[in-house]
Queue: 2 jobs
Job 1
Amino acid sequence: ELPRPYPNEIPHNEKLLSLKYESLDYDNSENQLFLEEERRINHAAFRTVEIKRWVICAMIGILTGLVACFIDIVVENLAGLKYRVVKDNIDKFTEKGGLSFSLLLWATLNASVVMVGSVIVAFVEPVAAGSGIPQIKCYLNGVKIPHVVRLKTLVIKVCGVILSVVGGLAVGKEGPMIHSGAVIAAGISQGRSTSLKRDFKIFEYFRRDTEKRDFVSAGAAAGVSAAFGAPVGGVLFSLEEGASFWNQFLTWRIFFASMISTFTLNSVLSVYHGNPWDLSSPGLINFGRFDNEKMGYTIQEIPIFIFMGVVGGILGALFNALNYWLTMFRIRYIHRPCLQVIEAMLVAAVTAAVGFVMIYCSRDCQPIQGSSVAYPLQAVGLALFPCFLPTPGSYNPMTLGMFTLMYFFLACWTYGLTVSAGVFIPSLLIGAAWGRLFGISLSYLAKGSIWADPGKYALMGAAAQLGGIVRMTLSLTVIMMEATGNVTYGFPIMLVLMTAKIVGDYFVEGLYDMHIQLQSVPFLHWEAPVTSHSLTAREVMSTPVTCLRRIERVGTVVDILSDTSSNHNGFPVVESNPNTTQVAGLRGLILRSQLIVLGLVPPQVFVERANLNLVQRRLKLKDFRDAYPRFPPIQSIHVSQDERECMIDLSEFMNPTPYTVPQEASLPRVFKLFRALGLRHLVVVNNHNEVVGMVTRKDLARYRLGKEGLEELSLAQT
Amino acid sequence: ELPRPYPNEIPHNEKLLSLKYESLDYDNSENQLFLEEERRINHAAFRTVEIKRWVICAMIGILTGLVACFIDIVVENLAGLKYRVVKDNIDKFTEKGGLSFSLLLWATLNASVVMVGSVIVAFVEPVAAGSGIPQIKCYLNGVKIPHVVRLKTLVIKVCGVILSVVGGLAVGKEGPMIHSGAVIAAGISQGRSTSLKRDFKIFEYFRRDTEKRDFVSAGAAAGVSAAFGAPVGGVLFSLEEGASFWNQFLTWRIFFASMISTFTLNSVLSVYHGNPWDLSSPGLINFGRFDNEKMGYTIQEIPIFIFMGVVGGILGALFNALNYWLTMFRIRYIHRPCLQVIEAMLVAAVTAAVGFVMIYCSRDCQPIQGSSVAYPLQAVGLALFPCFLPTPGSYNPMTLGMFTLMYFFLACWTYGLTVSAGVFIPSLLIGAAWGRLFGISLSYLAKGSIWADPGKYALMGAAAQLGGIVRMTLSLTVIMMEATGNVTYGFPIMLVLMTAKIVGDYFVEGLYDMHIQLQSVPFLHWEAPVTSHSLTAREVMSTPVTCLRRIERVGTVVDILSDTSSNHNGFPVVESNPNTTQVAGLRGLILRSQLIVLGLVPPQVFVERANLNLVQRRLKLKDFRDAYPRFPPIQSIHVSQDERECMIDLSEFMNPTPYTVPQEASLPRVFKLFRALGLRHLVVVNNHNEVVGMVTRKDLARYRLGKEGLEELSLAQT
């Protein structure tokens, strides 16, 4: 069982920063061996690497598209199967008047399906829970959430989302596609699977954090693209959520992966649905298409849209606040896997019951169609979307109101369950429902004049609600534009999203950021807190720093690495002058992982008889690549007493030119350097280039802008 | 008259790097006064600054939209006027059989209009020539092209583009909108006009390169947005061409400005055209709308699209190569303004003649419509666009072929003339023409089957041709998607653009990059040349560096600043120890502009009687802001012999924590630091933090990947 933070008191995780998360290192490649390889690289070799990058992106796109197809087709078939089972029984029991038995059967069926989905997540791979978007945001930000891009996670994620959707929960299958795309990208780009113990000996060049991160961006974009049929939106999502240093070539590759992904999805689904070669369908989601000609908007409507944005912001904040309390409750009481499974089953049963009651109370859904029984609430909701087309009055306001209310609370309850599922579709549905309700009211008021068309208010409501919950603006605008196949509404959608974000931010953070904070992740935002200019590197850095001498005794290295109380990951290498006191001239930086590889490779390079001689070059760059990314702990390396007395020349392997910063540099400047270059360690030096401290991610993430100005988060070991 | 490079020999500008361009400094703000102000900033003050940023972006959007409206409306009216004049005469003379006189009248009229347009550009503001896109690219990259964002440039640009279009040249009015937007942004964000000598005392916080650059990005995006009705495309254009450090908040503001710009344009034009409140029209350009339902594409067509991409790439490369030779010829022979005006008139007359002949030879354009006489070739071309709709056979293949050929050479001849005009529309027209021709041929072959619709091939041809010439991919894909209001064609357009870029790059660079290189601009690309890893900072840096001591004699400072042979802009400040030899410990960095402001402000801070005492704080941050960006030369500051002997403490004003790099750092690493942070000066230090050299933009821009590996550009003083 995992250790629980604060088992007996109200958790204050939002004021804490966890140290359990390792950082990714987007600048670790600069060890001597790598530099040597880079020096040897010529134009032709570079071209080969570049072509490989494109090939990998194409593969990411294809596989992500195929996974999306797989989810779509399996959901459709399983839901169809469930429908037939339920239908037969309803027919049978309705004759005998046993509606309550039908309800029971239905709820049980849904709860069992969800149980399976919940069990695999809770017991096999807990990181596959939820949409995965917060986790991917963290990964792209540079925080290594354990297991987040493993093959096992992908398998659990895909099965989990299928079961959640088939189980009739108030969830969408779109969010998890982003996580799935990211895992696929991380897997393909490494040319091996550590879980399956297969190494294809390809793409070895990309076995480091920087390259892997770039491919994961592409994978996330491909996921968005497949989910919403929005390749440009996917690129913007990746950039908005992840990138810091914008690189044109990288962006093109991301775009390429996105395009291939939609293309693959559309090709396969068009064949599956029997109209091959028709590629004009969108992604997994289907909003129904807008008609450009009929649907315009006028300038007078802009205030109405802004008002809807305000409503969306408030409802979104309410959603997030409720979910926050719920999450707190879950952290405190529902931390055992079996309890989590039971909660998921309960939610499934309640959702089924609500859906059942809704269908039988409302006349709108008669005759009951296949899909409405399979996932009843979704069906009511999804039916709203094609009605963006002007068909006023085709919805009963009462039903809509009930639906909005019910679905709002169900979706809120569902998010954070230990099942694999997304929040995009529920948010859109809630918004579309109240938006349409709003539009219907307006058209009553306006006596059916042409502009008061409920369809477009449904769209705006959907945007407002989703914006109020997740607080994305640019990428979401584009996703909505692409998913509806309509660019005319770009401006009002942007206005609505901006308003929703501003209003929502006034109350509470966005849902993803909230969950990231609840996990105490050392997440770095785009800029340092604005009031932090008076802080300098001297104040934020960790000091004293454990340094290694350029020529160091093996025993010292082993002792430092074995010291569980410090557990540092990067060590400045300083001049070997034995007379130095605390401060010493910086010569380089060496990472824990590099030191471990030094000890791993037989014959152990730690073992060096001839004192001060150079180590025989037995170590290859390949050794570092083979060990990446799961470096073993130091305990697995046995060093004899004899070997401990040997000396090792670290300058052979260290990064000779680490980034440094003077101790008077202000926090925002340090932050900018850190963020723009994707650093993991930044050495703080004095005027004589002597090491005085070290800045890592947690030192920067500790400072946050709170309600009363700058606040400093405490550190938690869990 | 400007000095000409290489008057008597074939210029080899493409192997040169000019030193006449100053760099912008995106990190110059870190002087002590600024740091103090930043330390004082609290949350409320920050919020005010943030709100001002949004207000400025809204104003940029509105003004850019209005300028676009102005251009559109004036062009329409002037063209109408010209049409009536010509029409009357043609009617009069055709009766008498004097067609040749009509031709003469027409050509003369066009040539006179173009003459005016050319005269104002050539004699008043030469930087307003062309589309301005290369200049804006340079500005966003960090190179200060003189006068590029001045008010005068905007006025000349707007008048120039109106006259060029009315004069019937093979140009578009879209490209210049980008430049116009940028100038508007630069002007508004500073809250004053130096040209008009008006200071509104607002937005003083933004008077530095970093902030100005951000607003210029927004302005360029707003320009794209107004020109093509493509707000997202505008954002991507700005990012693709300019940004390096992606900042989420900045991107949102850019997006906001873009959206406001399209919105303003559409609102005003809808009122002007008499159907107010209908906001669904696109930007200046009008492709005609696609119908989603009817126009699909199938997977078999993909190879055809790729083939079109190849053709576009080859034709684009041909266009660029021809234009390259032409530009060389112009640099060599047509460097006097009066010759430039004559050339522009000649082109106008020839264009008129060709258009005249074309109209009278082809039956397609009967009856002659208003616009076809006003700008005949454009009209033939623009008429192609609405025909994206499936109306096969409505064009005579012969006419199309003639048009393609003629227009190709005319557009090529026109680009680079001393007139203000863009190349987007001509490229699109050429492409649409041969694309349609290709489509017609296909439909003959396919015997009119449904998929062989010439309309979509026209679109693909347009994309291929434009992509082959300008080599943009991501932003251009989105611009095309938004301008046609169609997202279905995203994937094939992307494929076509990618193919065109790859094929075109094989032969010759993109048009904009070519012109940037011909101007010997020290442009920094996205990444250092791949084969440059073996170079270190030691090899690329300039050395020895002119350093100032922390407490320095005023005379020394004045002498260093007056030294015309060096003309450095940044000086490392070193420890004042008089015993130091060549190397000395780095303490800070001070800029030429900062030193000049020190001397400007009465009472002159150079004058400090009490030796080694601190300067009385008379200098305010405001002094630096008021002097920005046109710092006077040192010669304008008079320093007496007495004053020369005084000492000045530079640590009061310097940047105390400049970015440094160790001398062993590889070129790509230096490059990444420089590019990611937008530096102007990077101090190279040794292991003891002593200054050994300085890296500036020109040191990095000198290394380029040529056909035979890494090549080093020579430096030219012109």
Job 2
Amino acid sequence: MDIAALRSAHPDHWRRAAAIRALTLDAVAAANSGHSGMPMGMADVATVLASRHMKFDAAAPDWPDRDRFILSAGHGSMLLYALLYLTGSAEITLDEIRNFRQLGSKTAGHPENFLAQGIETTTGPLGQGFANAVGFAIAEESLRARFGPKIVDHHTWVIAGDGCLMEGVSQEALTLAGHLKLSKLVVFFDDNGITIDGPVSLADRTDQMARFAASGWHVQTVDGHDPEAIDAAIRAAKESPLPSMIACKTHIALGSAAQDTAKGHGALTDPQLVADTKAAYGWEHGPFEVPADVKDWWEQVGRRGAEARAAWESRLAALGKGKREEFDRRIAGEAPKKLGGAIRKLKKAAAEAPEKMATRKASETVLAAVNPILPETFGGSADLTGSNNTRTGDLGVFTADDRSGRYLHYGIREHAMAAAMNGMALHGGMRPYGGTFMAFTDYARPAIRLAALMQQPVVFVMTHDSIGLGEDGPTHQPVEHLAIHRATPNTLLFRPADLIETAEAWELALTQGDRPSVLALTRQGVPAVRLKHSAQNLVARGAYVLAEAEAKRQAIVIASGSEVHVALAAKERLEAEGVGTRVVSMPCMELFAEQDESYRRRVLPGGAVRVGVEAGVRQGWDRWLLGERGREAKADFVGMDRFGASAPAEVLFETFGFTGAAVAERVKALL
Amino acid sequence: MDIAALRSAHPDHWRRAAAIRALTLDAVAAANSGHSGMPMGMADVATVLASRHMKFDAAAPDWPDRDRFILSAGHGSMLLYALLYLTGSAEITLDEIRNFRQLGSKTAGHPENFLAQGIETTTGPLGQGFANAVGFAIAEESLRARFGPKIVDHHTWVIAGDGCLMEGVSQEALTLAGHLKLSKLVVFFDDNGITIDGPVSLADRTDQMARFAASGWHVQTVDGHDPEAIDAAIRAAKESPLPSMIACKTHIALGSAAQDTAKGHGALTDPQLVADTKAAYGWEHGPFEVPADVKDWWEQVGRRGAEARAAWESRLAALGKGKREEFDRRIAGEAPKKLGGAIRKLKKAAAEAPEKMATRKASETVLAAVNPILPETFGGSADLTGSNNTRTGDLGVFTADDRSGRYLHYGIREHAMAAAMNGMALHGGMRPYGGTFMAFTDYARPAIRLAALMQQPVVFVMTHDSIGLGEDGPTHQPVEHLAIHRATPNTLLFRPADLIETAEAWELALTQGDRPSVLALTRQGVPAVRLKHSAQNLVARGAYVLAEAEAKRQAIVIASGSEVHVALAAKERLEAEGVGTRVVSMPCMELFAEQDESYRRRVLPGGAVRVGVEAGVRQGWDRWLLGERGREAKADFVGMDRFGASAPAEVLFETFGFTGAAVAERVKALL
């Protein structure tokens, strides 16, 4: 690459972009780790985008109508941090840049959305940002349909690398975006031909342009180091009625000795290489030093949107009171006050007329009460609408032609669904929920984990939550998945036992601010177990005494979801034999763990044997069975220590010991 | 659809294919569940494929050189069962068809490879079969390169539906196959335009032909109900030097009232509908009844390959002794006898010259000793070769032009890598292992779970197994993933502490017959902890006493992997204060759980407090800490109850309490 030619062709542009490159070199050298090559390759694109097209105001990084910039190739985090610092972020200061990748800094190895405004999402696991961006773009369309283009009208810009595009999730994301004609989504493909193992040609020969075009995208190729060509491509992308992909031909680690090599992907820390590269750039400033004129120019870029934002504030103020309050409330992520009343009303009705019902059906019943009063809910399913019971009559379908619908047919794309829901939640103003089978948690795991890490209150509706789904067999029967969600930090797993617990779980899920919820719901009908109305949300305690021992308490049977009624049946048998048995319903271990110790001890006192019952693996249960510090109770667990089998559900429950009689025997064996 | 026209155009073909359709209707009706539409739609393709092209011998369903038939759209399992029954399978009998989806039958809701020969893989989770098939085709090429085309020369045929093609894993699989020019892989796309939620157009507008062509596939469209057109397309596919996709335009639930509808995807059980459909087919036979002439014809199809197989047996017999023994041994899945000696030799050398080493590097050291003596190993990495340390010098790279290499650059395709490895293992003759970062377990979870369910001894090499990876931060730092693998049935998770334990873990992984292994390996260097040579494989016991208490035993510290040396450091401090402390290394909880109780009690006796140390979540540990039945020990755990952070590894270990001093304090707090 002829750097001198680049410099002389666009000297001003060159120095501005070189600031990104130099800061990257300095930060990576100081940290002695990181990824230099991508920011060095994509600095020109980022400079043109930020200075000529992106709508933002560095003084108000939380402006709801700002453009969103998604760094899907998250390892190139210094690109983002440099942009934020240069344009005047109050949070990503020069000190933060100096502390790149150090404990407590806001400049983590990969961008973390919760560390500073302007970091729109957490990326690094490849393809996630791209799929998040589809959710951002859906959120924008949905909110625009609701509040009008004067209030919501912005673009979602993505930088994605070869890694993002090789990950399967990118296919799900791009086909979904193409289908929905998300025209305000623009993806810059950092087409540098290099991955960690070597040239892309080592592992792929895909024509990415043809691939995107095959799913209804507007595609362009551009010299990623020519600012005018980049600008023209962005203008064309904005005009296209389709989502747009711009393949930017770039040189990874531009201008360094590692240019166009796999080495250039990683940390360029050799002092001589850094010095030589800066010399090639004509960058004669010290480490972390940006000349005043360049910094001034970038800060002007950061202020470019101030006027537009002020005008927007006026337009928002001019909105009718109802709409404005709704907008503010939704952006704040607060549930409407009437949610609690609606849930209580539903619970009361359920207590008065208890009926056998699958909890997935119970979930639908709750949604039917909730969706009409929460305009922010946005439902969907990965092609299992009738099985997940996620669609209620009032939602309408969100399509390419109708953005007013609040239900999305995600197609057979569990991963993109989860990642897009993350994007909607991150965008703000939306409460996404989406369904698939619990076993297919696996397909969406990378995004579900990120919902937890990113502190986003997405709701994953996971039906068919055990062998109770029956004949579809072990491929579809989760056994380890409850444990998987429980093992994941900052995640609430709810496994409600009946309609009332399902309503309480939904109320909690819809009022969470900073963590996702997973609802584990049955395919099969289960009897009501909460027969008395309580205004209080008992699921909020995580576990509670559902039925007290009648005879002297000798045993506690703890169960969740579809096994709670089995525990009650066991109790009935045991009491008949004089064995006083308490039944504890434990719909959410995480919330129970958050209760104070005295409550936990009230629910699970010593002096009685304990048996857990759940049609899943034991892992996660021992804390409650054996006692939190050990030496507390003799215990056993009725669960699954193998994969399931294909047979009718009732046959499986009998075979694997999930009956009142079998559980009672296990209790007696401990006495 | 004009069924009468189809019938009269090819009357013989029609009746043969109708047998598949009728058996499907009968089995689904008897089970009152299942998926009728796909077998009814694809019966013509299956009939032409099986009778005119597939190389197999029903009398020898385990013939190593048979063609492989992969039903990726596994919900259409009756298509496969009908084919097996009709062609004369000794296992899939008419009784089994009658017992479709019942407990203990071989005809599970979705095909399960371990239930009967001829079921080549377990499908149902969509896209998996397709990605498995890429592995089957790689195995065929690799074995052909080794043993020659007289011994190995067969096709891999796949039926995939819209669901398979919408799943992201299909993109990873097809781009990998296109890159590798796997010309003997042929995918029939059941292009019926219907998914569970409704028409495909509800969620997708992808031009699948263009998409496959963009990645180097040969593509064709064909009327999926015209036997001659199907035949011609298959012939063209066989001639192409590229992998081939044939989009078969079919009608789901052909000829029924539910044809071309989402309802037709599921179980058609209405007696009137079944009767009307059979009438339209001109099928005048009772339930489960196949007229003798049709059954005879199908059984001839089942015998078509007998002669070819006999000729093949002669060619195999004529192979040189060395090659033949290797072929037989590899097909039997047996490790060579010299493996044990090589591992012992390596262990002895390691004990004599202990050194600080990352266990990922230890793994490379083991592979360097193992790969030259195990020609069946086939390594790879999802674009992290230098980080996963999976490539050894002797392997060579498997490419489109050179099939003799035994190392594959999978690209950034964790999911397809895992699924392709499953396919290689299922094919037989191969011992695949492949690497990525432990946190990216999530990307491959659906396939890793299936390795366990399918009982395949694949080895997943998961490096960077904790916060010890440092600056890349929480997106890359597993905390819940050890628990996830441990929660999965039939899976061995090894977390070795040093080179010797790594060698033992590899020995176990390479000698497993029916379960996968996951190796959790460090990025960071760790000191050797096994300083004395033992010929015995101690990791085989799952946990063992690494260092006995010197003073009177008051505490047991249990640790795995990179925390074992921390446990030893804690012991040193505690002993200095007179607190006798045993250190137990626990590299594999699953194997420890399989030991007899007396061994387990010897390793973890009562009468001492217990502290577990592992840089992951506590889930899974309580059984060993609290005592298997409770009431055994006071216990604590030093681990992670949150996501990690971006900082140098040593800072993180200090921050989160993984130091000898901090662990010693936790022990003392219990005394």
